[in-house]
Model the fold of this input.
Amino acid sequence: GAGVSQSPRYKVAKRGQDVALRCDPISGHVSLFWYQQALGQGPEFLTYFQNEAQLDKSGLPSDRFFAERPEGSVSTLKIQRTQQEDSAVYLCASSSSGTGGYTFGSGTRLTVV
Amino acid sequence: AQSVSQHNHHVILSEAASLELGCNYSYGGTVNLFWYVQYPGQHLQLLLKYFSGDPLVKGIKGFEAEFIKSKFSFNLRKPSVQWSDTAEYFCAVNALGNAGNMLTFGGGTRLMVKP
Done:
């Protein structure tokens, strides 16, 4: 498609459950970013891929968070043993050059109950 | 690390009023600056961006922003707002040389335009 696609759009998880969030970037985009947006706040950086290489994961809040992009296209953000504080919208963005002006997906709204 | 401050969390205007949303950042080096808009139920969309050159940048839908380096500011303006401008607006900074060129966002300003 023409845009960044994320699935699922909504996810409700019981505390302690593992979740996997998917991002399909724009075809050919080298750079891929994950952001976390808590309610009423701006997006906060989680991690960055250039092709299949994860070059920066400094924003991942704990070792329960894991991201991968094995073939340099689709990416998955996995959260293990979800906690209530993980409730947020998770945004994926891709860029052809990584210099800004990224295209964002619609996000996955995760609610941990 | 850089940070971005948006001073107004909520702004309410009547149609045809002028708009100015403040954005200040803290970073001493070279930056790229962005404004994104998020309409209700939609994804973040780029309004405008500044990389270099003329500090007055024009974007889509009649928006413009001025980069004032001495004030570390990148305020967003529109001379006459419309009801359809109701949305949340985010200022973002990309510090050149930062690994991954990731964006640092402000907390957002929620704009409501009354018809």
User: Anything to note?
Assistant: DSSP finds no helices and twelve strands in chain B. Chain B touches chain A through 25 residues (CB under 8 Å). The mean pLDDT of chain B is 92.
